[in-house]
């Protein structure tokens, strides 16, 4: 006993007093737990021998309702007993935080039940209650920490003032070891980590909706190449097939590719949200940046394995790295080079995964360099440009050496489309003879031209009109066999029919800009005659989640169709590019983002094979982020105006964030800021 007393005296005072709080919290929690468990079992299993409650088929909903009931019990018990010494008038802050913490606890509690039913396939009373117990334990820890540090703190200020005045000891529950944590929350240093947790949770939910990853004909081709069922060819980017092969070898699952896409998106959005918070100290704007990932025109393709999605998310990650580099204090040379190196790797991947994305990469590269080094000289421009070219070239050679792709000369699709839609079938036949085509190829071209014009097919002639007789896996080399003839025909005929060429390309481009289709990829889509690879067939997607996502996306398509159309995002990009100056520090970044979209869309005028929303995905993602950065700029300008007004009135405004030049500063020191925004 003496030994225990001695150890007790050595313990800090907060640890000797906290047992009272733990006991009270435990009793309240036990009561809430009983209410929750009983409520859950009544809703799911009822009181009848059959074990069928009102919500037997909806255990997640039953869990949520039971938790809401327990939430009321918890609030009354903790406010009026556990933390009664810190109880003040009921205010909006306390109620909001209490509801937020318990909603988070509700989600934590429901996750094991969801996994038990959907992943493990369990549904017995024992398994459901075990899952509930696991979730309850995790949620209890979350609630205890949040209650004592965030929610029930309304009387802290008065208690500390009284202690300072007469040195009267405060009750044990007010003597906290978590003062640094509360100070971190008040100062804003804790909020970026809250954003990180929220981003991770959102990324997990999105990946769950798309699990194991929606696939198209293009995706299936690349998956078969990654699995080794088909030889690698360059019709689709070999670098993507190689990446998928590595992920499958590492994780043992083809779904890792879709999970990686979601991770890159939400990681980039977290970095951007963190930058927004450092600049504005606005919870709303930082959360709005995270919400970009849940926007209907962004989330619709998050789990679809497409090269367009890879390019868009890689470019977004470069933007996030660039804006993060802007916030670095003076110096930090090594960190700047690391951020630039990561950005260069991502940009090289963009070029390798989507060759026609090169025009869009150039402005983003300039954005990266000028964000890492506010005033790069000629040597630095030459050095960084050379590094990007070297990384891209080495990556291309390395991927080719590893995969040894079959050369398909896919670019021959472009002259084929132009010839079949600009010339008449008779003109196509004569042009083929003049260019030295074989009789068989000439007849195929004439047949394709007749089909396209009879059926009024406007584009994608190779797949829609051309009479291909061999399986899809082999026809990827057919155009390559006749590519020289096609290019010879194009150079001989298009100068003579330039008006028809401009009319045709304008018609296809207008459809891309105003009538983009396939705004939602509904699960697994295959061309006629194709079959799913065995790993995909054995891992079907969740039809309920798919229908929910589809209703969300198509509902937005019905009400806000412009966000799925190229003209809207091109117009946004032109405004970003042509306006001379924007409020806030991101004028240069906004103009370069606008230039990236404009160049990317212009590059599609001579190359667009068909009308498809996936070709607009990068403009939609970058345009949405850019509009939020514009809002951030206006918020910064209003804050500066308030500070100037306060200074003019002779008062000291409350600082919006840490002082410039400190490690937690919202931005660099003033001289560097002038260089950045000038």
UniProtKB/TrEMBL annotation:
**InterPro entries annotated for this entry?**
GtrA_CellWall_Glycosyl, GtrA_DPMS_TM
Membrane topology classification: Multi-pass membrane protein
Cellular compartment(s): Membrane
Looking at the record, which segments are called Disordered? 643-678
* Residues passing through the membrane, by range: 21-45, 57-76, 97-117, 129-146, 190-210, 242-272, 284-303, 309-325, 337-354, 360-376, 381-402, 562-578, 590-609, 615-636
The reply to whether Magnesium figures as a keyword in the UniProt entry is no
Stretches of Low complexity bias are at 646-669
The record ties this protein, via Pfam families, to: GtrA_DPMS_TM
- The answer to whether UniProt assigns keyword Repeat to this entry is no
Q: Which keywords does the record carry?
A: Membrane, Transmembrane, Transmembrane helix
* Predominant location: membrane
Q: Which domain of life is it from?
A: Bacteria
Q: Which residues form the GtrA/DPMS transmembrane domain?
A: 25-152
One GO BP annotation is: polysaccharide biosynthetic process
One GO cellular component term of this record is:
plasma membrane
* Family to which the UniProt record says this protein belongs: Belongs to the GtrA family.
Q: What is this protein called?
A: GtrA/DPMS transmembrane domain-containing protein
